[in-house]
């Protein structure tokens, strides 16, 4: 009888050890990846060097930030599910702000292609007229 109780005790300890080892991996699996791509509206070219920030919707605290690469792509990994604000800024483009929520079971939140409007307008033609003095 005592050997049976001893075996059960050992099995319980082994089960606790296994759960303790794999529990952090289960918690990490609940984090998601957020990604997207930035394009210029006029030239349909990738926008490199834009700052993309994820802010908390509740208090606007900074969760994470990154910059777009040469292909205009950005990605965040290890973001917890919740309510956020995506803020995209670039010196040559209008800023974009978008609220989003990640409550589904999906581990990937893809914004797809986001078009950035150029801050500067191009004029077709300028005529300068002056009178001689």
Describe the overall structure:
With 133 residues, this protein is α+β, with helices and mostly antiparallel strands. 20% of the residues lie in helices and 41% in strands. It has one helix at residues 2-28; strands spanning 32-40, 51-56, 62-67, 73-79, 83-90, 93-101, 108-116. It has a four-stranded antiparallel sheet, with no helix packed on it. A three-stranded mixed sheet has the order 4-1-7, with no helix packed on it. Strand 2 and strand 3 form a beta hairpin. The mean pLDDT is 84.
Instruction: Choose one word for the global shape.
Output: rod-shaped
- The succession of helices and strands, N to C, reads HEEEEEEE
Largest sheet: 4 strands, antiparallel
Class computed from helices, strands and strand pairing:
alpha+beta
Arrangement of strands in the largest sheet: 3-2-5-6
How much is the average pLDDT? 84
How many runs of DSSP E, i.e. beta strands? 7
Helix content: 10-25%
Number of helices: 1
Strand fraction equals: 35-45%
Distance between the termini: 119 Å
Low-confidence stretches: none
Computed over alpha carbons, the radius of gyration is: 26 Å
